[in-house]
Amino acid sequence: MSLRLIVVDPGHFHCALVQKEMYPNVDPTVHVYAPVGPDLLDYLDRIVRFNTRAEAPTRWRLEVHAGEDFLDRLARERPGDVAVFSGRNAGKIQRIAAAIDAGLNVLADKPWIIRAEDLPLLEQVLRKAQERGLIAYDLMTGRHDVMNIVQAALHADSEVFGEQLAGSPVEPGVAVDSVHHILKQVAGAPNPRPPWFFDVAQQGVTLSDIGTHLIDRVHLTLFPDQAIDRAELRILGGERWSTAVRAPQFTQVTGTRAWPEFLAPHVHDDVLEYPCNSRLLYHVRGVHVAMEMRWDWESAGGDTHTAVYRGSRARIELRQGPAQGWRPELFVVPQADIGAALQRRIAALAPAHPGLAAERSGGEWHVAVPDALRIGHDAHFAALARKFLDHVEYRRPLPAWERPNMLAKYWLCTEGVARAVLR
Description:
Elements: E1 5-8, H1 13-17, E2 29-34, H2 38-52, E3 61-66, H3 70-77, E4 82-85, H4 92-101, E5 105-108, H5 119-131, E6 136-138, H6 146-155, E7 174-181, E8 185-186, E9 189-190, H7 200-203, H8 210-222, E10 233-246, H9 247-254, E11 267-268, E12 271-284, E13 287-296, E14 304-310, E15 314-319, E16 329-334, H10 339-349, E17 357-361, E18 364-368, H11 377-393, H12 402-419, E19 421-422
Helix pairs in contact: 4-5, 5-12, 6-8, 8-12
């Protein structure tokens, strides 16, 4: 079977990353429906670079249907099986709903919603997709990151980790910190940002956007393959604050010299106070979880992600700072004699992850992950796309826990933003 892709209004580089490689079960002709504008041009430029690169060039052929009526034309013409969404987040769920109504499977980048009031529509979309035998898949690329996979495997080993500690608001059982950067390189090229990226009504804040990934990782680590109900979640507190973006920086990343009118309320003395950062404290099934997510301007080390899971026998820590050369590294800090159990677990993981090793370093263990297993952010998109396409081609339904967990995740993200204190 040769599946046919439809790309809808590609306003974010993640859409192009799905096409960074070819797939044996996908037709090389892709139909693109979008309004004419810089977002479409940026997407086309990225596909051209993939098609013309020296190493393993892709062979995509694009049929572009450009115009303000692109959604109406898509509903009428339906020239494919799968609709791919990655663009501005406001209104995304309405477009996904239209694709499901048209009988299309959906692969959509996060977040599907950024407002709590859109949660009923998300629930309706997921229910309708299930009833019609369609696959509606959230683009959670972190599930294919080897660091997260190994971290979860160590957490699941009671001889290594012990029992998950509930913790407290002061010392949570799980603590996660994520820093993304506004100015960065993607797929070897500077990544421009459209002006609407800085409008939280369009893009969302870090909790409603990046938070979807973090919560997905935490819940799958704590409760693998288990459904989580919203009733099992309790928000304990949260706050939001701004990142300052100066006028020259805004021009550098957007190519726009003047501040758009929709950003005027946040511009003071020619500096944009971008109200994007957030912190959330909640508990799930009694486990206290603390998250901090922010957008900084630029970093020589790239985006960073750290996490700490506190167990009765050990702490598992993902570190990514100057001491690690800005590379994610996994450490196990023992609270008991776990050396033999850790070596057994690493040996059991080694066939699937060749070269994995546990090395004693002072009073802790470093889980060494070889470069060959670190496929990188961009490659995670292809790995997830292959899994999604397999579900579509063979009509394999998603696991039963996916739908309730997605609803719980988006409730937590959107409700957390609604309750956050702005400082």
